[in-house]
């Protein structure tokens, strides 16, 4: 079903996360019913629904930048906003399968490879199962001494409980910190006395209160204490999920950074007028796809994020400099949509649309073929870890 964008009033499919014309977030997004995951979170859910073994067994790390050898994975690089699909080979080197802004395409790459691996593991296991069955059926029956029932049950309980406890302990050790305010009180740390806020669903979504600017700013991958990376180690620094004036600083939810986060760090696509210059924003991400019209050369030129006026990189502020979503022929400025850069971008969108159509057409793919039987054994050592993919 088509819906109308609240920002630019263009029509687009209601299954899209954002408006393809201006990048505005679709707050009422309807998930596709094709059954194929399109986001990292949906791929995690699919993984669990298939009853697959833990990631350290299958070697598929979803939503993680795993650094060890022998691993497939996908994660979002918070510094660039790109999604990265990778394979770490047996020698520890990394082959990047995809790096770009298309999350659905990235997820499909790993999803396809994961399904291929499941079928391969099932094929390996079926041969072992047949052999084991034959050996069992050909063996002569033997009398077994009757064991103590209580002792047997106790041993079985221990065998079952130990893996569960280990998995639970592992999960607690790697789970990201909860959402809310944290105060670093480590006297030996450069972050001592600083107020932090965790706003993301992974370990990278951290903000720190800057006393010089009296505002919140986003941290990079190394801009917060190491103890903040997991819920277990961060719990001693946790204050609350709501703001209290005794924390100092200010309420994170009143900050421009929080507004950026609520807009997925996107800014509307189109023309902006700022200090007598005309800018065009081609891609949704606030830091990428910015062009400025150069009067001297009578042409558009791409500029880096650092050259873009800070006001234009925040959706809540940029609207004060909004010019038009489409070119106004009454102005002396040329139409950006006639440039080669825009045509290449449209070709990329068409490729995404084609992929979406192909994904929907394959909705008859039976997930039961990939459901894992607990009686099967997964041997990641049988995977070809020397190839790029």
In summary, what is this structure?
The protein has helices spanning 40-49, 55-58, 103-138, 149-174, 231-234, 256-262, 315-318, 340-361; strands spanning 2-4, 11-13, 60-62, 71-76, 83-88, 94-100, 180-183, 195-198, 206-210, 215-218, 238-240, 270-274, 277-281, 290-294, 299-302, 322-324. The chain is of the alpha+beta class and 389 residues long.
Name the descriptors.
389 residues; alpha+beta; five-stranded antiparallel beta sheet; 29% helix
Number of DSSP-assigned strands: 16
Strand order of the largest sheet: 10-9-8-7-11
Helix content: 25-40%
| Biggest beta sheet attributes | 5 strands, antiparallel
What is the typical, i.e. mean, pLDDT? 82
Strand content: 15-25%
Cα radius of gyration in angstroms:
26 Å
Q: What letter string, H or E per element, gives the SSE order?
A: EEHHEEEEHHEEEEHEHEEEEHEH
Number of helices: 8
End-to-end span in angstroms? 37 Å
- pLDDT < 50 stretches: 127-147
Shape: globular
Number of domains: 3
By secondary-structure content and strand pairing, the structural class works out as alpha+beta
Please describe what this structure looks like:
The strands form four sheets. Strands 10-9-8-7-11 form a five-stranded antiparallel sheet, with no helix packed on it. It is built from eight helices and 16 strands. A hairpin with a 6-residue loop joins β4 and β5. The two termini are about 35 Å apart. It folds into three domains: about 35-130 and about 340-370, no CATH class; about 180-260, no CATH class; about 270-340, no CATH class. It is α+β, with helices and mostly antiparallel strands and about 400 residues long.
């Amino acid at each position: 079903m088509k819906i109308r964008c609240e920002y630019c009033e263009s029509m687009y499919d209601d299954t899209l996360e954002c408006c393809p014309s201006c990048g505005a977030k679709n707050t009422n997004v309807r998930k596709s019913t094709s059954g194929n995951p399109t986001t990292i979170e949906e791929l995690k859910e699919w993984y669990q629904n298939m009853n697959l073994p833990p990631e350290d067994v299958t070697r598929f790390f979803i939503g993680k930048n795993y650094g060890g050898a022998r691993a497939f994975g996908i994660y979002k690089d918070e510094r660039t906003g790109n999604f990265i699909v990778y394979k770490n080979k047996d020698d520890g080197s990394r082959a990047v399968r995809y790096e770009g802004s298309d999350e659905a395409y990235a997820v499909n790459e790993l999803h396809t490879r994961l399904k291929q691996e499941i079928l391969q593991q099932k094929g390996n296991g079926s041969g072992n199962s047949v052999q084991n069955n034959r050996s069992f059926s050909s063996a002569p029956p033997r009398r077994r001494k009757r064991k103590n029932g209580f002792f047997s049950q106790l041993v079985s309980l221990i065998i079952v409980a130990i893996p569960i406890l280990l998995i639970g302990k592992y999960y607690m050790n790697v789970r990201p910190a909860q959402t809310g305010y944290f105060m670093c009180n480590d006297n030996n740390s450069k972050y001592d006395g600083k107020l932090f806020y965790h706003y993301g669903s992974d370990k990278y979504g951290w903000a720190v209160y800057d006393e010089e600017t009296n505002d919140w700013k986003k941290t990079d991958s190394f801009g917060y204490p190491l103890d903040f990376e997991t819920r277990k180690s961060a719990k001693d620094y946790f204050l609350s999920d709501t703001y209290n004036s005794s924390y100092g600083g200010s309420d994170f939810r009143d900050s421009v950074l929080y507004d950026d986060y609520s807009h997925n760090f996107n800014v509307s696509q189109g023309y902006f007028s700022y200090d007598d210059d005309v800018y065009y924003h081609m891609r949704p991400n606030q830091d990428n796809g910015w062009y400025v019209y150069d009067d001297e050369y009578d042409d558009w030129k791409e500029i880096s994020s650092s050259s873009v006026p800070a006001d234009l990189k925040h959706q809540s502020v940029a609207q004060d400099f909004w010019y038009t979503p489409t070119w106004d022929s009454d102005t002396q400025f040329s139409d950006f949509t006639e440039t080669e850069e825009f045509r290449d971008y449209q070709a990329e969108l068409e490729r995404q649309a084609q992929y979406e159509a192909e994904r929907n057409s394959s909705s008859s793919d039976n997930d039961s073929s990939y459901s894992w039987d607990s009686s099967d054994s997964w041997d990641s050592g049988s995977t070809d870890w020397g190839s790029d993919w």
